[in-house]
User: Fold this.
Amino acid sequence: MRKNSIKNTRINGEVQRELSNIIRSLKDPRIGIMTTVTAAEVAPDLKTCKAFISVLGDEEAKAQTLEGLNSAKGFIRRELARTVNLRNTPEIRFVLDESIEYGMKISKLIDEVNHNENQ
Assistant:
């Protein structure tokens, strides 16, 4: 696996920012209010993009948000092509990112251990 170039890193940041703006403007009721784009990985050939999505809520809310995003893929890609000037507009694949929830869970467990130790 090769390291990302500066250009690819800059493109990833720009695509992440624009995807976040586009998703925020969607009117689909299935997409949760607390939906964030935590990262975007655009392939070096600009053909594909893996967008990592974090959703605050239960499993049903996560599933519905992914369903809503997948149904709006065409619109999101078209808006991305309009706002970001790239040679190719990447095909977007949404992936659920649970790292924030995992971090919160671990932090809570550490706090419980520290609380029990102090008693």
Summary: The chain is about 55% helix and 20% strand. Helices lie at 6-25, 59-71, 73-83, 99-118.
